[in-house]
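Everyone, describe these structure tokens:
***
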Amino acid sequence: MVNIGTTKIYKNNQITIPSKIRKELNISKESVIIWSLNPDKTITLKVENKKPSVKDLIGLGSSKEVTNAVDLKRSLYL
């Protein structure tokens, strides 16, 4: 692994992606960055250069709270 640059965390927990990385990976305002925390406490980032659809987001999150899909859908439309 090559260290291309460093960044710091700013107000509101925002970071800046170094320009060399943005240019190399063609990162734009529409890009989505997926963060993964590895067992060894390292972070892996994956860049997707598209806006995610609802279909892309299905299954990404989890909740310890028991939910009912029918009730959730009804609550959106009532």
Summary: The first strand starts at residue 32 and ends at 37. The helical segments are 19-25, 54-57, 69-77.
